[in-house]
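We examine the record.
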Amino acid sequence: MTTAKPMRVKVVDSHTGGEPTRVVVDGGPELGNGSMAERLERLRSGHDRFRSAVVNEPRGSDVYVGALVCEPSDPSCAAGVIFFNNVGYLGMCGHGTIGLVATLAHVDRIRPGVHRIETPVGIVTARLDESGEVTVGNVPSYRTAKQVRVEVAARGAVTGDVAWGGNWFFLVEDHGMEIGLKRVDELTELSWEIRQALARAGVTGRGGQEIDHIELFGPPDRPDADSKNFVLCPGKSYDRSPCGTGTSAKMACLYADGRLAEGRIWRQEGIVGSVFEGSVSIAGGSILPSIKGAAFVNSEATLIFDERDPLCWGIRR
């Protein structure tokens, strides 16, 4: 009896402000042609175990965000990408795009300059500087509801805004908690309760889409920052970075409230003390956020998928 040869997948790992990105550079499933949104659905429906195998234990962890590099359908783009995590898929990922660009430079696929990246929610731009810093021009961002009140179990009412920054966010400032690493467990519990409360109350993003990111804000620790945040991601892990799509959603709210002028720099501190620089421009009535940060490649690896291993495709929840 012959045994199937193990599958090998090449990945490059990096971190952006402390948040890891694992980029699949070779060995991913064949997803055919079409848009990144169409290919994401093919990955979800036909190859979801691949997602799990790449980012879940025993090869990964709940913190990992995966990025599958694809040939873009738009020839003006340097690459296409599908982002995923421990429980599913992301329309866009700011820290992940910065990590992707650092990885593409690391493997000599791009050089400093401006590049277009095709994502499932649209084309974004990424300027790679000689210094290694990356500025991501994100998809249009906006707020759909202001000061939404929900009842959180054992905590009472919490008020926040619903906004899109490439993913759906509920942004809360009146939570009454300190934003700091020593409070991560309590912040996670509160954020998870808020997410469940939103679902119970039927509060959604546009078109009934689930709000799967919760963002809590407080005063910064760094004197050069404007705010500090805690972001709970869909799989109940917190973002170590200041969160690119979350900062985009925040800036959309600030602009809508007249608290952030076009072109003004907003410095968003994350839970581990790293900072993204953000700003917005306005075109055709749309709010277009930009996020600047840096990623550092920290490993290259070949993942081996041996189907004799009962946990070959990852530990799923």
Notes: The chain has a mean pLDDT of 96. The first strand starts at residue 7 and ends at 16. The radius of gyration is 19 Å.
